[in-house]
Amino acid sequence: MLASRTLASPWPLCRVLVSASRSPSRVNSSRACRPVCSTTSTSSTAAETDLVAAMRWKDGAVIRMLHDGDCPLCEREVNMLKQRDCENGRIDFVDIASPSYDPSQNMNLEYEQVMSTIHAIQPDGTVIAGIPVFRSLYEQVGLGWVYSLTKNKYVGAAADRVYDFWAARRTQVTGRESLEVLLARRKLDEAGRVACERSKSDD
Questions:
Q1: Contacts by residues 114-117 (CB-CB < 8 Å, ≥ 24 positions apart)
Q2: Which pLDDT does position 37 carry in this prediction?
Q3: Which pLDDT score is estimated for 203?
Q4: What pLDDT score does 83 carry?
């Protein structure tokens, strides 16, 4: 029954969750939500408050999804979520591939970090990575059952491993250059923009 449901999801990982969970003894516990700042010092608390304030949170949103707008398969997933969320507006979609992506507005999550695996941010600044992101997003659009099995720590850990394997190769699978090449090109583009801005300010 579960297998037939997971096949209905557009995200390819859903097709392998059941098979990946058959070896629970070989995996570690699933990663969970983590706060960006764990210290309780006054300065760190103030810095975290500033980061949260800088996020420019969308009204009504309960989670922000950081997605790669240049990934065709990823965007298929994003478009499905947008369609199901259009009336409620509970998800804030941020395209990390956009030249305007600003880490300072996203808990200082750099492009290289968010390209390596999917990330999401909660209103209080808590950062989520990996499978828990999909589980949270799907719950917001009424499809929580798709990833409900990953709440089991063994299944969640197995699912994370499958997703990490996919994430490391997704750019080439979708007909793009390797992740390493894309990251290097992004750095060159950013360096070029900085040089242009400096040149304009000197004129």
A1: 114/66, 115/68, 115/179, 115/182, 115/183, 116/167, 116/168, 116/179, 117/163, 117/164, 117/167
A2: 41
A3: 63
A4: 96
Tell me the three state secondary structure of residue 127. Answer: strand
Q: What pTM was estimated for this model as a whole?
A: 0.67
Residue 149 in tokens: 């099995």
CB proximity list for 15: less than 8 A, separation 6 or greater? 6, 7, 9
Round to whole Å and give the CA distance between 118 and 194. Answer: 27
Q: What are the strands of the beta sheet with 91-95, ordered from one edge?
A: 91-95, 63-67, 119-121, 127-129
Predicted confidence (pLDDT) at residue 104 exceeds the cutoff of 70: yes
Residue 34 gets which letter from DSSP? B
Q: In the chain, how many H helices and how many E strands?
A: 8, 4
Give the mean model confidence (pLDDT) for residues 173-187: 66
Give the C-alpha separation, 35 to 49, whole Å: 12
Find the Cα–Cα–Cα–Cα dihedral 110, 95, 134, 26, rounded to 10°: -40
> Which of 41-50, 170-179, 191-200 is predicted with the least confidence, judged by mean pLDDT?
191-200
Structure tokens at 152: 């089991």
Instruction: Please give the backbone phi and psi of residue 121, each rounded to the nearest 5 degrees, phi first.
Output: -130, 140
Max alpha carbon distance in the chain (Å)?
67
Burial of 157 (0-12, 13-18, 19+ CB in 10 A): buried
